[in-house]
Amino acid sequence: MTHRTLRGKIGYFRNRLGEIGREWFTVTVMPDGTRTLRAQCEMDDDVVLRDVTYSVDAAWRPLDAFIRLSVDGQFVGSSWFRFVDRLVECEAYTRAEGRISQRVELAAPAVRFGTHSLITDGWHGALWQKNGPAIQAILAQPASSHAANGATGPLLLLGDSRLKRIGEERLRVPAGAFDTTHFEILLVDFPALHFWVTARDVQLVRIEWQHLDAYYELLEYEETESAASI
What is the distance between the alpha carbons of residues 71 and 86, in angstroms, rounded to a whole number? Predict the structure, then answer.
């Protein structure tokens, strides 16, 4: 069996403050197109540490996820999520709410899950429909938090957004030069977020978000292929 592995590091930057955090990630892509993300997200300014494990199928639809969250060195919550047809389940334990079980029926199967890892923000690009309208709605989709820094929960919440494709751009970041597609996410409660991703793996290269006067870009990146014989 052969699988591909994508590894890298994303830097978090404030325009007036410099580096304020970082995200290390590994994505394993299986022969059937299923992929699993493992991400460690650190925010120095908000003292947030988030660990994310998240799997999607070949069509980028969520399968399951685990998120553990700490703020200022203190445990905040630990949650497991499962997606089956139109059902989303969450089994959680948080410092504020205690033990919680959630089950939510959606109008249609979930097409994305907001984990607050930046890699999965970039995976929004996989939702773009080439023959669809200029601005495409992504309605009633699950997320683990609605806070700008994702430092609540993690619990099951639903939210709306819209996706707009800006165009193709050649982008140079510390990890190298990439051919990317530039998208814009139009949010309900926050200013729009701009992001750039590659075509093959919808790999995040850069994000710009006016709300936090921040940008995020790929600092390191490598792809490897592994083969195991039985």
Answer: 32
Span 72-89, pLDDT tens digits = 999 999 999 999 999 999
Owner of token pair 């925010």: 43
Interior/surface letters 16-42, b for 16+ CB within 10 angstroms, e for the rest: eeeebbbbebebbbeeeeebbbbbebe
Predicted TM-score (pTM) of this structure: 0.93
DSSP reduced 3-state for 122: helix
Cα–Cα distances in Å, from 35 out to 30, 54, 110, 123, 139? 6, 8, 16, 12, 23
Q: Tens of pLDDT along 40-54?
A: 999 998 999 999 999
Buried b (16+ CB within 10 A) or exposed e, 119-138: bbbbbbbebeeeeeeeeeeb
d(CA 142, CA 155): 9
CA 154 to chain centre: 14
- In sequence order, the β-bridge partners of residue 228 are none
User: In whole angstroms, what is the distance from residue 13 CA to residue 218 CA?
Assistant: 11
- Bond prior to 62 in cis (omega within 30° of 0): no
